[in-house]
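#struct-queue
[09:14] JT: dropping the first one here, sequence first, then the structure tokens:
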Amino acid sequence: MREENAGRPMSEAGHECNLMLGELPLRWLTACSLIVTLLAGEAPPMAEQEDSLQKVSPALAMGNLVERVVPVYPPIARSLRLVGEVEVGIVVDTEGRVIEAKILRGSKVFSAPSLDVIRKWRFRPFHIKGAVAKVKTTVTLEFRP
């Protein structure tokens, strides 16, 4: 604690956001940063991105799919006769292109082929409340020999 705070009660000395960085635990620094950001009228970057995306069901997403590329079955998986599913979280832009893809669950052997093809998929633009919208959803790819 800084010398000018010595002898002051914790309620006055320990809850200030303007203390030197080395004096506060990381969780206090994070909380103080969030409070300052909110007071400044700015939304935290992650919250802003999540709010701008509309979530659609996998069934609705597949109904809007216009171009599907089939994944290549990995040779190592074929030789071991592996089967499996990969669930991928995707973000589709207003033009129907997959702009983000992330493996949510599934075997690592099938992850790379899944991401390779999912980024090539194309969807009809999604209309939500009469406007074209950027959306997030999940798709599941099955791998069978």
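[09:21] JT: and here's the second one, same format:
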Amino acid sequence: MTTSTIPPLQQSSNSIAHPVFAASRLGCFVHALCSSRPTNNKILDSVFRCIDHAPISIHEYAIRLGTYMKCSASVFVLAGVLVHRLWEKRPEYFCDLSALKILATASVIAIKFLDDGFFNNAYYAQCAGVALEEMNLMESTFLSCIAFRVFVNPDQYKVAETRLANIESLLYIPPVQTRNLNTPEAAFANPACACEQ
């Protein structure tokens, strides 16, 4: 069995070389998918759906994940592919109340698949602002929905990287004022406190 690895990120105009930049672009993508759902489609209650809006924007949340998950930028490119695969299988899961959890879950799955060193789910649950049991359930649900299809060949990766790098030129994303996320209190404040536990 031959295996191929994801090519290293190249410094170019369409490259995503920094995790925070890549995470912010992934946040734009998830926001766009959640905003573009046809209004006539029923939104299903799922493990990803929060009861109420979180007190943090998806942009701020994505920056938080990019900062504190301590992973490579390529993780967020793969996470974008995984989010798209979930969208293809279960578009009814996508709404403004599920965006943060879908973003976090795809990122955790991608970290485990791509990066050699990664933390346990307790750490990622803390980064995501959810309970460990909830993180485990979200991860298993997400993987089941995409039939455990996590592998991306190098050509698919390059296309995904280019699309993610240029996402803002394809979408209108309203400007967001960000908070200072560089303090320990802000780093692990619970952004999804209004979500189901």
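[09:30] RK: nice, looked through the second one.
[09:31] RK: The chain is about 50% helix and 0% strand.
[09:31] JT: good to know. The first helix runs from residue 19 to 35.
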